[in-house]
């Protein structure tokens, strides 16, 4: 079950006050004598995410406080109110008495739901007992839909590869399609070769038959703009014959984070009933090591007809995405988006918290940047730098999947994908898909990135 808001009238409602350091004295002055005494004695200082339950005369929780920190540090934190979901006693809470502007109420409410997320497949647990009434003036249904999409993404990424291979990723897409009234078609195994998806097949052919490569194709909506989302579904990445060291392989269950993110975004779009023709393409593979593994120096011919020299089998994500992007481009969508945990270079450039994106369309870039700031889903534009095109052009093939030198790795990967993406607007996200240290609304583990920003920007980008 995905987290939802409490229902009005379902329980005694506890006032919840969001308090900044600058507003703490004023808030204390507004409390009753015993409540003020309790708060001062507890040492509450309105630090970022600091929570305090204040008893009433009967010993129940009479009100609660959550700290916002000071104005100077506001840019360093998001979803601070959400900390109350895991830190306050069980009960039904309602944001009261100002402390947050209207623009921040939706973020606070979403943060509460995201903080309530728990991954319990392998370990018993229950959701926090502190629940929030939807604040007045926010679109509660939209926030719940966004939270559900994000939690689906987290569940998929957090599941170990033994239980989240290509077949299980297909099953997750089919479950979502059944729930939302969408349709799914799948091309698997050697049929990929027969239907001209040679690079998806090459990357995944060394896996066992039960984990055979496949292309998952989900469609929803009968009218409106054509939006196609392509997500990298490498369910585990050994690196292939260019095998990763153990330290680099440890988190490779998350290498299908792009697929998980586009499925979570698709859930948001379908739940909200946005007027569009949505298509989701997921090349799902395991980059395994066996006698059938593709090799360094192999030259692959892509669906588009471009030849690719394989200079590193650990740069496999762009290969499977290339065939999927070529298929997507055959329908000339109004917007084509790829999401992938693609390069370590992107993490070096911007760290784990920012989702770098590439696009040639200035209006699309501006819309995404604005939306990311508005919905607390930070994104950062990076360039399709044309002078680097020569770096992906080897001697014996049209393209090189892993240029030597190690320079501009995120950009050269994006340029590689752009060769296969032909659409009115193309956006590529190079996401991390993982929270390395817990923060409000973002427990350690799998995470979506860029999806909420894209959802918020869609009306402006494609004029829904």
Automatic annotation (TrEMBL):
UniProtKB keywords: Aminopeptidase, Hydrolase, Manganese, Protease
CDD domains according to UniProt: Peptidase_M17 (cd00433)
Residue intervals of the Cytosol aminopeptidase domain: 312-319
EC primary class: hydrolase
EC number of the protein: 3.4.11.1
InterPro entries in alphabetical order: Leucine_aapep/pepB, Macro_dom-like, Peptidase_M17_C, Peptidase_M17_N_1
Xref: Gene3D superfamilies: Leucine Aminopeptidase, subunit E, domain 1 (3.40.220.10), Zn peptidases (3.40.630.10)
GO CC terms of this entry: cytoplasm
Domain of life: Bacteria
GO molecular function terms noted in the UniProt entry: manganese ion binding; metalloaminopeptidase activity
PROSITE patterns attached to this UniProt entry: CYTOSOL_AP (PS00631)
The keyword Manganese is annotated on this UniProt entry: yes
BP-aspect Gene Ontology terms: proteolysis
UniProt keyword Oxidoreductase present: no
Pfam families assigned to the protein according to its UniProt record, in alphabetical order: Peptidase_M17, Peptidase_M17_N_1
Family of the protein in this entry: Belongs to the peptidase M17 family.
PANTHER family: LEUCINE AMINOPEPTIDASE-RELATED, PEPTIDASE B
Protein name per its UniProtKB record: Leucyl aminopeptidase
Organism name: Wenxinia marina DSM 24838
């Amino acid at each position: 079950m995905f987290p939802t808001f409490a229902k009005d009238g379902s329980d005694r409602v506890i006032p919840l006050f969001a308090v900044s350091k600058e507003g703490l004295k004023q808030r204390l002055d507004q409390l009753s004598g015993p409540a003020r005494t309790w708060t001062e004695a507890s040492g509450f200082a309105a630090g970022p995410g600091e929570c305090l339950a204040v008893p009433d005369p009967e010993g129940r929780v009479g009100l609660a406080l959550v700290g916002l920190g000071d104005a100077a540090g506001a840019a360093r934190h998001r979803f601070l109110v959400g900390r109350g979901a895991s830190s306050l006693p069980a009960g039904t809470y309602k944001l009261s008495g100002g402390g947050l502007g209207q623009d921040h109420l939706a973020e606070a409410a979403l943060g509460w739901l995201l903080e309530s997320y728990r991954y319990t497949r392998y370990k018993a647990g229950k959701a926090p007992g502190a629940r929030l009434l939807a604040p007045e003036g926010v679109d509660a249904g939209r926030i719940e839909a966004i939270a559900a999409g994000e939690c689906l993404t987290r569940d998929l990424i957090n599941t170990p590869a033994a239980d989240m291979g290509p077949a299980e990723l297909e099953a997750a897409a089919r479950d979502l399609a059944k729930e939302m009234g969408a349709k799914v078609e799948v091309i698997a195994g050697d049929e990929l070769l027969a239907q001209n998806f040679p690079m998806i097949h090459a990357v995944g052919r060394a896996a066992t038959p039960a984990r055979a490569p496949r292309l998952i194709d989900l469609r929803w909506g009968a009218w409106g703009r054509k939006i196609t989302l392509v997500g990298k579904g490498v369910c585990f990445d050994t690196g292939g014959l260019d095998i990763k060291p153990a330290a680099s392989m440890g988190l490779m269950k998350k290498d299908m984070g792009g697929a998980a993110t586009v499925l979570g975004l698709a859930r948001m779009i379908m739940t909200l009933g946005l007027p569009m023709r949505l298509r989701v393409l997921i090349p799902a593979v395991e980059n395994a090591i066996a006698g059938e593994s593709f090799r360094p120096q192999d030259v692959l011919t892509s669906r588009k007809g471009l030849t690719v020299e394989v200079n590193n089998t650990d740069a496999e994500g762009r290969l499977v995405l290339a065939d999927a992007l070529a298929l997507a481009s055959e329908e000339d969508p109004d917007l084509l988006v790829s999401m992938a945990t693609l390069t370590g270079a992107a993490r070096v450039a911007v760290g784990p918290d920012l989702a770098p994106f590439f696009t040639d369309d200035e209006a699309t870039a501006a819309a995404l940047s604005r939306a990311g700031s508005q919905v607390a889903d930070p994104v950062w534009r990076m360039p399709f730098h044309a002078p680097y095109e020569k770096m992906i052009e080897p001697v014996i093939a049209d393209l090189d999947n892993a240029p030597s030198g190690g320079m501009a790795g995120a950009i050269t990967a994006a340029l590689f994908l752009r060769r296969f993406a032909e659409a009115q607007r193309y956006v590529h996200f190079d996401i991390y898909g993982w929270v390395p240290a817990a923060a409000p609304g973002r427990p350690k583990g799998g995470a979506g990135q860029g999806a909420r920003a894209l959802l918020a920007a869609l009306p402006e980008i494609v004029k829904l």
